Amino acid sequence: MTTAGGGWTLVASVHENNMYGKCTVGDRWSSQQGDSSDRPEGDGIWSNRVTFGSAEAATSDDYKNPGYYDITAQDVSVWHVPNNAQTEEWARASILRYHTETSFLTSQGGNLYHLFTRYPVTYGTGVCNTNTGPAVPIVYDAGNEESTLQLYGPNTRDQVTPGFITFRVFNNEKAAMAICSGVKPFGCHTEH
């Protein structure tokens, strides 16, 4: 990837196989066991060293490689690519692409694994707008603040500020969301 001078490595992808079936079989990043206070950490994928999937299939299945926890990084780049897009088409097909330029990972342990070890995605361990992880400004490579807002439902648009990536936020029910992609929430209904 050549964004911001290159040096980017694909270490993970989050694929939603069923928008109505969150926390069901196939949702490795949230939980394949269901969303329940009986399993507050879900499957723990954000802060463990389990790997799965392949880069070639990253738009049709979840993916996590050892670089997620082994590579030391400064910033992140996020691409929103439609399901089943071929690897060589990702840049052209993406509906939103952005990256950070603040070197924020340096102060968070050097990668997403360490960030989510510091800010675990665990039900009931925080409250809305209080125990949030970092909210980092983004630089758009494709898309803009307005197109980012259009990716969210009308009720959510009034509760977020576009132009950020925010890590580990809680809703009113104390459920943890790992990432608010492209936005910084100030409302407490991040699940919408």
UniProtKB/TrEMBL annotation:
SUPFAM superfamilies documented for this protein: Fibrinogen C-terminal domain-like
GO cellular component: extracellular space
Listed GO MF terms: oligosaccharide binding
Region (Disordered): 26-47
Sorted UniProt keywords: Disulfide bond
Protein's recorded name: Intelectin
